[in-house]
Design a protein that fits this description.
It comes from Lentzea albidocapillata. InterPro entries: Peptidase_S1_PA, Peptidase_S1_PA_chymotrypsin. This is Trypsin-like peptidase domain-containing protein. The chain has about 325 residues and is mainly beta. The chain folds into 3 domains: about 70 residues, GMP Synthetase, Chain A, domain 3 (2-Layer Sandwich); about 140 residues; about 100 residues, Beta Barrel (Thrombin, subunit H), CATH 2.40.10. It has 4 helices and 25 strands. The radius of gyration is 20 Å and the shape is globular.
Length: about 325
């Protein structure tokens, strides 16, 4: 697979930014990106504005111009969804056989203790539902030295518009058989949903933890995502998966539902993999490069493609830094309130 270099992207980027909101307003369009133009299944080597649509049909090439400002467009069918897991509390099936870790690390399953009322058309039948996602890594707050948070996404940490600081979180999640109170590991401390970011920070409790990602090792810090580099993520559902960054210019319209509605996330990382990179329940996992630096926060996927927030705006909006093994014990937290 070939990847467009940065010089080619710099030419396309201002044109893409100029038209992306207008394209996103059109029926069926769910994303705008930069990629290589493909014609009749063959890459052309030309940089293009890639337009993601729910279903590719005769109407889509007609509503998207063949080129804009001398830059070609490419219409691609995608089905991009947030990758949290949600099940009904009324279902008879037993909880998933879940991992239980006495020492917490990034890459493990978590979820809110509270349940959520969800109604059609978001689900087939109205009822109380519970949520699962992934605890990605640990971060240290800048505004309150000594406080450590667990990092996940907004759509795992907050879920709907009724969230509140102090909401209880469990490992394993209620989806996976966790019990409120007994399996409490943290409480919601802060969250952000704007620009490039869907993120939340959970104030850790008394359970011991390590500044590591399960199956990956110690977190060394943060870095910028680079086109063509290999990354890994460890998620609650698919475990450890590998992919290659093919874009850092994805703009997506994602349906957060649950009173939040459709939101636009800009400048997202797109990861390509020969196998599914993530699935429902993996939201909140961190993308880690070959040197164990975190480059992104996984939010959504489509088949073999995965999408993640770039890590720097996540850290900036939450006002935190990644926790690494070198952080002194004096900066580690006390129990969550």
């Amino acid at each position: 697979m070939s990847y467009l270099d940065e010089s080619a992207r710099e030419v396309v980027r201002p044109v893409k930014r100029m038209v992306e909101d207008e394209f996103l307003s059109r029926p069926g369009v769910i994303g705008v990106d930069i990629g290589e133009k493909v014609t009749r299944g063959r890459p052309t080597g030309r940089a293009a504005i890639v337009v993601y649509v729910c279903a590719k049909g005769p109407e889509h090439p007609q509503q998207i111009p063949a080129e804009v400002g001398g830059v070609p467009t490419d219409v691609v069918a995608e089905s991009i969804v947030l990758h949290r897991a949600r099940i009904s509390r009324t279902e008879d099936e037993q909880p998933v056989a879940a991992e239980r870790h006495q020492v917490l690390r990034g890459g493990i399953g978590i979820g809110p203790a509270r349940s959520f009322r969800v109604v059609p058309p978001e689900v087939e039948r109205a009822g109380e539902y519970v949520i699962a996602g992934t605890l990605g890594a640990f971060v240290v707050t800048r505004d309150e030295p000594g406080k450590v948070l667990g990092l996940t996404t907004f759509h795992v940490g907050c879920v709907d518009d009724s969230w509140a600081v102090g909401d209880e979180f469990l490992h394993p999640s209620r989806v996976d058989g966790g019990v409120p109170g007994a399996d409490r590991i943290a409480v919601l401390d802060r969250a952000a949903l704007a620009g490039a970011v869907s993120a939340a920070g959970l104030r850790m409790g008394a359970r011991p933890f390590r500044a590591e990602v399960l199956g990956v090792g110690a977190v060394m810090g943060s870095a910028r995502a680079k086109i063509g580099s290999t990354v890994r993520k460890r998620g609650r559902t698919t475990g450890l998966t590998y992919g290659v960054i093919e874009s850092t210019d994805s703009t997506l319209r994602l349906d957060f539902g649950d009173g939040i509605g459709v939101r636009t996330l800009r400048d997202q990382i797109r990861v390509h993999s020969s196998e599914p990179f993530g699935d429902h329940g993996d939201s909140g996992a961190v993308l880690v490069d070959a040197d164990n630096f975190v480059v992104g926060l996984y939010v959504a996927g489509s088949g073999s493609a995965g999408f993640a927030n770039p890590i720097e705006p996540v850290l900036r909006q939450l006002d935190v830094d990644l926790l690494t093994p070198g952080v002194p014990e004096s900066r580690r937290p006390g129990p969550a309130a």
